[in-house]
Amino acid sequence: MTLPRRMGMTAGAALLLVLAVLAGICIGETAIPLGTVWKVMSNRLWGAGHAVDPIDGGIIWAYRLTRALVAGACGAGLAVCGVILQSLLRNPLADPYLLGISAGASTGAVLVTVAGVGAGAISLSAGALGGALLAFGLVAVLAKAAGGGAGTRGAGQIILAGIAGSQLFNALTSFIITKSASAEQARGILFWLLGNLSGVRWPDVWVAVPAAVLIVIVAAVHNRALDAFTFGAESAASLGVPVRRVQAVLIVATALATAVLVSVVGSIGFVGLVVPHAARFVVGVRHARLVPAAALIGAVFLIAVDVLSRILVQGQVLPIGVVTALVGAPAFALLLIRGGARR
Amino acid sequence: MIRISGVGWRTKGTHIVRDVSLTVSQGQRFGLIGPNGSGKSTLLRLIAGLQTPTSGQVRLQGKTLAELGRRGIARRLAFVAQAAETADRITVRDAVGLGRTPWLSALSPWSAEDDRIVTEALAAVDMARFDRRDWMTLSGGERQRVHIARALAQRPQILLLDEPANHLDIHHQLSILRLIGDLGLTTMIALHDLNQAMECDRLGVMHKGQLIATGTPAEVMTPDLLARVFGVRIRELVDPVDGAKVLRFHEIC
After folding, report:
1. Å from A225 to nearest chain B CA?
2. Is A268 helix (H, G, I), strand (E, B) or coil?
3. What is the pLDDT of residues A268-282, one digit of tens each?
4. What does the DSSP 8-state code read for residue B204?
């Protein structure tokens, strides 16, 4: 790709992201005009001193902007995690939750909110993060003991270990809920399990955005190594890729990023599985283009879905995971059919 | 060029390859023959550094594989597996371009020179006109040619091939083998077809993980040895057209 073209693409991508965030701010139960958004943003960013309604200011700055930023970060991060795992494990069904992370996070979350572990000293996010890391550790140990996980053979072992780990932690979650949750608590937890962007504030932005940026950078740095896995791990090794190291670094980075994102917003399904495929349809399989494309599509998609989840049912916010699947599944089906016809 | 000394590989108490020593000199075409499970593929993988020997050492151009490192090995040696597959919708040109991986880094990104090398590699296997095609649309023989082109794009001095003509029809078998012969690289190739093995400069015979004979095809392909290793009786026929020897095989009951 020539330099001017690359700069053009980057500018286009940035513009698209800004537009998505603006849409996320303006659209909602009460529509906010662009002019007001401009005034609030310039007040906040460089103290322009426009007169604005403090309620509008609060909604824009503390509620809708943070929500859009976290949605974008989660969309980009989960999509890139999906790209990495699908390429590395040579499995089109791989998604960021494959490593037992979302199941572990749920268990951690219900332990804190329902079973009262930590006696209020531990937040739901911290519990979820702890559960996610514990589950991933267990899956990694199991995969290693089964003789796989890293190396030229046995990438399949980590998938199987992930399934076992996920089942175990999902069962634990159900067990805790049925044993000790009230109906009210169960409803709250269900909401969180399907992905929840309500109550997201600036501290969450400072957790989610760096995690997403880091995983995108890690993936971009490894784009050639990921390409080399096209014909399997052994082929990658014969092309000079240090397979064990690359697998270990990428899987651990993916697990950490996913665990952080899940701990902020719950497990939003579908994005990590489907956005990578959509990105491949658009830009092809080379990771130099696939990674940024997946990040952009993931971010814009999740911001848009969040807007939909707020306006679809009057006076009620739907769990975002429900909407990602409702919107994403038909869109993906269309892509599949079109791709099939082209083949 | 390739010097293997006392190389062995064992797993779960079983010796898959045991105490193999061997030298292949520059430009030589070395054929490995032996029955299924005799350790040919494992030996090639050990030489390519894809598996680490549990004993002994492999040297390429005087350096051990550990000294060379993964990237260093990949710049000197290319490995073509039996049938590596992908479900990705990758184009032929991109698949061959993967061969440039060991030469690329953040400091030396893809350049016009890499494009030229890929074009040359595609031309060498007679696949230039397929370069925009999808991998999915290729036949088995075409895919194997693309694998060889990718190996050539690594610009190796040594080429290892694990039964590259397996699964191909006779026309493609012959054309792949002729192609490999014309490259002029130091080549080690595992072969099933003993008549095709006759075309190599030297042969090594693997039997139960050990290299039990090396030499020219005429020295190695003795009735005695073939009976012992493959359990067949051979009769040599002579092709009246060019005087070449042809082997016929009969089971020993």
Report:
1. 8
2. coil
3. 888 998 999 989 988
4. E
